[in-house]
## 1
Amino acid sequence: MIEIEPARASDRPAIEALLRANALPTAGIELALGTAVVAREEGRIVGCAAIEPHGSAGLLRSVCVELGRRGFGLGRLLVERAETLAAARGLAELFLLTETAADWFPRLGYEAGPRETAPAALSGSPEFTGACSAGAALLRKRLSPETPAG
Ligand SMILES: CC(C)(COP(=O)(O)OP(=O)(O)OC[C@H]1O[C@@H](n2cnc3c(N)ncnc32)[C@H](O)[C@@H]1OP(=O)(O)O)[C@@H](O)C(=O)NCCC(=O)NCCS
């Protein structure tokens, strides 16, 4: 059975290993661990999603599902649970940069936009300053307190 739950501080090494195995950046992950969720299967982490808070905006990052667990809706559930955590923390809008899933996030309500429209506060995030290439697509989604739990 797979359970989706808030990440614990002790999950950091397993999250970083999952990100590295899927060629996703780990730089700055500590900024997002307080608003991160994991999918746990018999104690093992098979998926994660995290949000770096920057003022009233958040950077959704590190959305990842282990190869053998993809295609069962876990990715969607992880993002929805991370959104719920973010909304509960008062974040109004989420942004993300992606080189690999620009066609997937619109299914979850994210819309592509020019990178320059990201709030200045996010520009200092490690993903903006280097971990993600300049060619990565920017997507955004406005959150409401009614954002459904996964
Ligand atoms: C993107 C990702 C998290 C999706 O996880 P998942 O658990 O398979 O997602 P879901 O089961 O909710 O959705 C599966 C559907 O999305 C599609 N999909 C999955 N990844 C996709 C991608 N990168 N681009 C476009 N569509 C994608 C699948 O084909 C499937 O389509 P279907 O429902 O028509 O069959 C997973 O593929 C992954 O970890 N990729 C590598 C890391 C990555 O690129 N992360 C995003 C950047 S931060």
Note: Residues 22, 24, 63-65, 70-76, 98, 100-101, 103-104 surround coenzyme A (CB under 6 Å).
## 2
Amino acid sequence: MSALKVLPTVPGTQPIISKKPAVDPSTLAYKDLLRGPFWQRIPAYASVTEEQFLDHNWQAKNSITSPAKLLAAVQELVPAAFIQDAELGFKHSPMSVRVSPYMLSLIDWENPYEDPLRIQFIPMGSKLKADHPKLDLDSLHEQADAPVPGLTHRYQDKALFLALDTCPVYCRFCTRSYAVGVDTEEVEKVSLKVSSERWARAFEYIASRPELEDIVISGGDAYQLRAQQIEEIGDALLAIPNVRRMRFATKGPAVMPQKLLTDHAWTDALTRVVEKGRKLHKEVVLHTHFNHPKEITGITEDAMNKLMERGITVRNQSVLQRGVNDSPETMTMLVKRMGHLNIHAYYVYVHDLVKGVEDLRTSVDTAIFIEKHVRGSTAGINTPTFVVDAPGGGGKRDVHSFEYYDRETGISVYMAPSVKAGQYFLYFDPLHQLSKAVQRRWADPAEHDLMTNAAIAKAKERIR
Ligand code: SF4
């Protein structure tokens, strides 16, 4: 039977026949946002009021940084074996661990091993996998492309300014684990602390390069900058004639949206920089980092509405992660939910080659598969581009644009003619998704050059 519907019309006009069948309400679930005191499910937060939970200082002060603090928060929700497993995970993690109470409250503690938020922030010893042999700690070569410490100039007209090295939470998958957070048992970090002298050198370099129009202010995380520092950086960059666009990069809205609602000094400082930029005809926006639809709640909606009212554009960059968002359903839900709150889905990154998180990586093939399903589910302006950030400093390449992809050895070969002409950049799929025979080849260092040279030779053949 046809589900076509006759819509009511203005008297005297022809009835309108809807050609689309009535929508299945479940497809609109992206609009259903969690509200109410959901945090009170956590034993340590059972009597925490809404006012406290919305206080960004309370969130920062009560963040989880050790297995002991984790146990103190979740108490009987998890068995002792889980905490022991987490202790092992903390011990071997290249990243510091910090989880906000907001994130902790959104984890499904009845099934924490499978929970997409737990997977991103709390390392478990039992889940660790050996790193890919081609991995190095700064796989994107950000330091090699830095003319002054903490300023990466790779693309012709854009630079990445790492203003500081701390974040409101620490993500297991962080590309910048070489610098972000405190030293761990596994990694001694490069220092990128707040320093007026270092910042001045970065601004001086930017002013000396007329081709630089676009500056990303990251870290670490711009959420950790004091209000006065947001303005100091904003004013300094806006005063440079060649700078036309700036993006403050922060994971904050995804992990602690409360700050946008209750740290008035910070949000007002950002607003002032955005407004000043607008008067100078320069764009200042916020770039954030949602990875899973569960990270978006009613609190996020209130925070995003506040930015919308102030005319602040928000764009998102996600990281594709195994067990987190590596399905068409989850990624589509994320993209639609962000669109609903006026957050533009800008990029989805294939997971960088990062130490200690091989369990999180997916393949180029997975990214292509998911992209095919996401495209068409919403308007193009809200459809993310799926990219590989080419190891070795090739920059972001559309995932489909490989010159050659050997799905058997898991090697994809990219070129970046506008970034580093003539060079080949290789991405490596995670070992555990390859056949046992190929895994054995990767276990033998003598085979590495054979496999990579073969992939590059095939790429050259196709380019000719
Ligand atoms: S917030 Fe960003 S910089 Fe900080 S740990 Fe997470 S991914 Fe890394």
Note: The radius of gyration is 23 Å.
